[in-house]
C-alpha cells in the first residue's frame, strides 16, 4: 500500500521584499575600472546606510522577528519528523527559504521524505513500519494537515496488515488442527474411545438380555 511519501509544512508563509544591491559594472576582464571602483564603493556605502535605516523601521523589525521565529519553528518541525522516522527517512530535511529585509535567508517551509511502501510478503514488518510512519508524522508539537493525512494513511496500512496477520494465523491454526486430528497418537486415542464405547454398549445389551430371561 502506497501513501504520499513526503512531509510538507509551513510553505511560504511570508513574502517580504529585500533591498537588492545594484550590480557593479565590470570591464571585459572582469575587473573594475578605477572610476567604477570609486562609484561602486560609494554605492555600497549608500546601500548599507539605506539597509541600516530600513531595519530601524518598526514594521521591518517586526517582519524580521517573525521570520526568525518561523525559521526556528520550521527547523524544529522537520527535525522532529526526521528523528522519529529513523531508517525510513530518505535523506535529511530540505527547506524553502525567504530572504528577509535584512538580506538574510530564513527557512519558511520544509519537508522530510520517507519510505512509505509496505514490506511484500511480511505483514508483521509492514505493521511495524506503518506504526513508525504514524509516529514520525505526529512527532512535531503541532502536526500540520499534511502530517495528519500521512498518519491516517499509515493507520489504514497498519489496519490492513493486522487483518492479514489475523487471516494467516487462522489459516495456520486450521492446518495445525487438521494435522493433529490425523496424527498417530490422535488416531490411537480415537480408537480407544470407540472401543470403550462399544464394550460398554455390549455389556449394557447383555444385562438387558439377562434381565429378560430371568
Question: Can you describe this structure?
Answer:
By secondary structure, this protein is mainly alpha-helical. It folds into 2 domains: 150 residues, no CATH class; 28 residues. The chain contains 5 helices and 3 strands. A 3-stranded antiparallel sheet has the order 1-3-2. Strand 2 and strand 3 form a beta hairpin. Helix 2 packs antiparallel against helix 3 and helix 3 runs antiparallel to helix 4. The longest helix has 37 residues.
Overall pLDDT metric? 76
Give unreliable regions as ranges: 1-43
Largest sheet: 3 strands, antiparallel
Shape: rod-shaped
Rg calculated over all Cα atoms: 38 Å
Q: How do the SSEs run, as a string of H and E?
A: EHHEEHHH
What is the helical fraction, as a range of percent?
A: 55-70%
The number of helices is 5
Number of domains in the coordinates? 2
Derived from helix and strand composition plus strand pairing, the structural class reads mainly alpha
Termini, distance in Å? 81 Å
Strand share of the residues? 5-15%
Side by side, the strands of the main sheet go: 1-3-2
Number of strands: 3
Amino acid at each position: 500500500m502506497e501513501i504520499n511519501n513526503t512531509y510538507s509544512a509551513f510553505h511560504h508563509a511570508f513574502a517580504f521584499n529585500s533591498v537588492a544591491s545594484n550590480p557593479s559594472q565590470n570591464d571585459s576582464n572582469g575587473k573594475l575600472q578605477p572610476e567604477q571602483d570609486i562609484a561602486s564603493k560609494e554605492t555600497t556605502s549608500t546601500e548599507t546606510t539605506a539597509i541600516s535605516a530600513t531595519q530601524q523601521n518598526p514594521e521591518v523589525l517586526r517582519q524580521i522577528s517573525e521570520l526568525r521565529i518561523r525559521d526556528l519553528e520550521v527547523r524544529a518541525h522537520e527535525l522532529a519528523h526526521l528523528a522519529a522516522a529513523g531508517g525510513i527517512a530518505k535523506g535529511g530535511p530540505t527547506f524553502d527559504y525567504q530572504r528577509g529585509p535584512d538580506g538574510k535567508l530564513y527557512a519558511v517551509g520544509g519537508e522530510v521524505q520517507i519510505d512509505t511502501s509496505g514490506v511484500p510478503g511480511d505483514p508483521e514488518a509492514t505493521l511495524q513500519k506503518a506504526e513508525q510512519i504514524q509516529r514520525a508524522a505526529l512527532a512535531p508539537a503541532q502536526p500540520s494537515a499534511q502530517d495528519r493525512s500521512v498518519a491516517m494513511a499509515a493507520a489504514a496500512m497498519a489496519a490492513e496488515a493486522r487483518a492479514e496477520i489475523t487471516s494467516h494465523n487462522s489459516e495456520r491454526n486450521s492446518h495445525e488442527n487438521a494435522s493433529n486430528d490425523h496424527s498417530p497418537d490422535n488416531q490411537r486415542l480415537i480408537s480407544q474411545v470407540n472401543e470403550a464405547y462399544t464394550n460398554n454398549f455390549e455389556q449394557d445389551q447383555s444385562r438387558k438380555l439377562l434381565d429378560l430371561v430371568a
